[in-house]
Structure formats: structure tokens, C-alpha cells
Design brief:
The complex is a heterodimer of chains A (139) and B (274). Chain A has one domain: 3-Layer(aba) Sandwich (Rossmann fold), CATH 3.40.50. Helices cover 41% and strands 17% of the residues of chain A. Chain A contains 5 helices and 4 strands. In chain A, helix 1 links the parallel strand 1 and strand 2. In chain A, helix 1 packs across helix 4. Chain B has 274 residues and is α/β, with parallel strands linked by helices. In chain B, 36% of the residues lie in helices and 11% in strands. The radius of gyration of chain B is 20 Å and the shape is globular. The relative contact order of chain B is 0.11. The chains are: A alpha/beta (139), B alpha/beta (274). Chains A and B meet through helix 2, helix 3 and strand 4 of A and helix 6, helix 8 and helix 10 of B.
């Protein structure tokens, strides 16, 4: 089975710094996640996540600051409001909502970052490639 | 003549002298229904007044108000249309200060046709017909019983027929954005039939219907391919109610949830990790 492709949208202020912290601590985690730095988790629109799936990602991560710690006060509230609904949309469309990971990592939480990445990569590894499911039924 | 139609006609004739016009449905020579502005200058037009099949009129109100702001209007609304008008009001698309709503209560047959949970009006001061209780929605319930794999198969069977005519968006009483994400090449590409999976058009539309869908089922009615997309919109409406306590089109002053910050206790109900 090919290695799963995962795209991670990380907020500039907490999660991206958290990834740096993990790196500086020499923590090991799977290399499957390609990181895209965004100004805020609230920047990640549902369309962006869906397009990422359409382009062939097996899993998408949206990581932001913990609720209450957002650099823009309430930017991550947008993610916290939209992403659970998007998970429901995926569920009702027959796409495993587990393929979308929404979580919070602060700049100091290198270990938490490594653990979230490791756990999510394992989750996606257990699923078939999304492109395999996303083909029209012949008939 | 249908009893309810006759009662509606009487109510309209009562209201008409006090307003510039009344928005309702009119049947044309070919037997088709279309929204119409009935005016007192042309009382004969009321002979064509119709109530079925239904057609959503909230957007008609929006367009008339755009051209004639401040016009004093009456408007015939079913429960779903009333919810549509309320939601448009909250999104600053219509002004309700000069509008008198005439509520048309749906019959049991109509409610069953629409699988409607709320076939009655709640705000209209004048009403026609007896309000009835909502009816169950066996189609959505049947869908909920499916496993994830069955759901995927189900949508593949349905969506392979989609010709991307945009009819569901065009008829929707809540699709009033000047710029539509569904017309953006970035999100919904053109040139393929059937469209590539995952079906961006339908997923984005489902997402955009969050806390907006008023459950009128017009999208299914106009669909030339009979795709039951309202299933998704209805299920999401239930989730939004659970997570954010918001019911679309019910209250005039409750703010829609997406634009606001998380309220006390809301974050816990989203099911996201801490």
C-alpha cells in the first residue's frame, strides 16, 4: 500500500511554532504530513479542505491555537464552528470524517504536535487511499 | 374553487387596498406557476391566483425591494417561505417594516409531498387555512440507517446523473450572494461530466446551506436528475441545532451562528478535542 498523503494547515502563531519546537527537541514523527503555513486556522475555509481532498490528499489536518489563545482573539473560533459541520458534511457524503483532523497545538507543545501527527498518520494508514474510493461505480 | 384558494383570495382583497401590491403565485396561459406582483390597478389578474405547485417567493421580494425600496407590499407565504424571508431579513437582504405577510398553511398532502417538519407559519398576522403538525421524513430516516460505504454508493448512484445545471442554487431562497463559490474555478471546475469525486459542487453547497436551508425542498423539486440533496441539508440543520442551538428561520432576532464567536458551552458541543 502506498504511503498516505496528508496535508496539514498549521496556524503561524501556535501550531507552526509547535512544529518548530518538536523539531528543536529532535522528536520523531512520520514524514507523511506536508505542512502549509496559514495566518490562522480561521483562514482555512471548507472549500480549501475539500479541494485538498479532491487533489488527492488522504487526510487533511487543521491545527490552530488553543481556544482562548488565538493571536487574533477569535480567529480559531471560526475553525471551531466550521470544521465540525464540515466533518458532518463528509459523514453524510460517505467520506470518513476521520480523514479530517482538527486540533489545537500551542508553540510550546512540541510533544503534543508529534503525538497528534503520529496518531493521525496511523488513522489514515488504516484507511484505504481516498482516490480508490473516489471513483464512479462502473455499471 | 379550492376552499383555501377562495379564502386566500378574500384575504388578499382585504389587504390589497392598503398596499402597493401583493406577491403571490399566478398561473399563466400554459398552466405554469410563476411569482407575480398583484396590483390593485389590475384586479382581473387575481383570477390567475394559484397556490400549487409551490414556488419560493422570498427572492422575488428581495428583487422587488431592490428596484422599489420602501414599497408597501403584501406577500403570500407558506411556512418555508416565511422562514426564507426571516433568514433573508437577518442577512440584511430584505426590509420587513413595510411588508404584511399572509400565511398560507399547508395541507397534510402538501406537507407529506415536502416531507415537511414545519408546514405552518409562525410570524404572519393574517393566516389562511388550518395549521397542521409536521410529518416524518422517511427518505432522510432511510438514509441515516445506511453505513458509510452504503452512503458513498448511494451518492455515487445519485450524483452521476448531475448535469451541473445550477438549478438547485438558482431556485434556492437562500442563495442571494453576489459572488458564488460554486462559480469559482478554484473550487468547482468545469468541463467534466460526471464531475470528479469528491463532488465539490455538492459538498460546497451543503456546507453553504449550513444554518441557511429552510427545508423547502425546492432544490429537489427543480432538479432534472431527481437528486435528493435536501437529505444532507436537513441532517446538517439538525446538527447545527444540536451544536449551536440555532434553528433556521424561526426567530427574527437570533443571530445566525457561523459569523459569531463561540458562546459559553458551545465549544464542548462541537465534539472537537481540547
Amino acid at each position: 500500500m502506498p504511503e498516505p498523503k496528508i496535508i496539514g494547515f498549521l496556524c503561524n502563531w501556535c501550531s507552526y511554532r509547535g512544529a518548530d519546537t518538536a523539531g528543536m527537541a529532535r522528536l520523531k514523527y512520520p514524514p507523511n504530513v506536508k505542512i502549509v503555513r496559514v495566518p490562522c486556522s480561521g483562514r482555512v475555509s471548507p472549500e480549501l479542505v475539500l479541494r485538498t481532498f479532491r487533489e488527492g490528499a488522504d487526510g487533511v489536518m487543521v491545527l490552530g491555537c488553543h481556544i482562548g489563545d488565538c493571536h487574533y482573539s477569535t480567529g480559531n473560533h471560526r475553525a471551531a464552528k466550521r470544521m465540525p459541520v464540515l466533518k458532518k458534511v463528509l459523514e453524510y457524503s460517505g467520506i470518513d470524517p476521520e480523514r479530517l483532523c482538527v486540533n489545537w497545538v500551542s508553540a510550546a507543545e512540541g510533544e503534543r504536535f508529534a503525538k497528534i501527527i503520529t496518531d493521525f498518520t496511523e488513522t489514515i494508514r488504516a484507511l484505504p487511499p481516498l482516490t480508490e474510493e473516489m471513483t464512479w461505480t462502473k455499471g | 374553487m379550492d376552499q383555501r384558494l377562495e379564502a386566500l383570495l378574500q384575504t388578499i382583497q382585504k389587504v390589497l387596498p392598503d398596499v402597493d401590491g401583493i406577491i403571490g403565485l399566478k398561473v399563466n396561459a400554459a398552466g405554469h406557476i410563476a411569482p407575480h406582483l398583484f396590483r390593485k390597478e389590475a384586479p382581473a389578474e387575481l383570477d390567475g391566483l394559484a397556490i400549487w405547485p409551490k414556488y419560493p417567493t422570498p427572492d422575488t421580494l428581495r428583487l422587488i425591494q431592490k428596484a422599489h425600496p420602501g414599497a408597501k407590499l403584501g406577500m403570500v407565504v407558506r411556512g418555508c417561505e416565511e422562514r426564507g424571508v426571516v433568514e433573508m431579513f437577518k442577512h440584511a437582504q430584505v426590509d420587513l417594516s413595510n411588508i404584511s405577510l399572509i400565511g398560507l398553511q399547508c395541507t397534510r398532502e402538501e406537507a407529506e409531498f415536502c416531507r415537511c417538519a414545519k408546514p405552518y407559519t409562525a410570524h404572519a398576522k393574517l393566516t389562511v387555512g388550518e395549521p397542521i403538525e409536521g410529518v416524518p421524513d422517511p427518505v432522510t430516516e432511510g438514509f441515516l440507517a445506511k453505513t458509510r460505504e452504503e452512503r458513498l454508493e448511494y451518492w455515487k448512484e445519485q450524483l452521476v446523473r448531475c448535469i451541473k445545471c445550477y438549478g438547485c442554487r438558482n431556485v434556492c431562497p437562500q442563495c442571494f450572494c453576489n459572488v458564488c463559490a460554486l462559480e469559482d474555478e478554484k473550487w468547482v471546475g468545469t468541463g467534466w461530466l460526471p464531475m470528479p469525486l469528491p463532488p465539490m459542487y455538492h459538498l460546497v453547497r451543503s456546507m453553504h446551506m449550513t444554518a441557511k436551508c429552510v427545508a423547502c425542498r425546492e432544490c429537489e423539486e427543480v432538479c432534472p436528475a431527481d437528486i435528493p440533496m435536501a437529505i444532507q441539508y436537513r441532517l446538517i440543520a439538525g446538527d447545527v441545532k444540536e451544536m449551536f442551538g440555532y434553528e433556521t428561520g424561526v426567530s427574527m432576532d437570533e443571530k445566525p451562528p457561523q459569523l459569531l464567536v463561540l458562546a459559553e458551552g458551545e465549544f464542548e458541543r462541537t465534539g472537537l478535542p481540547h
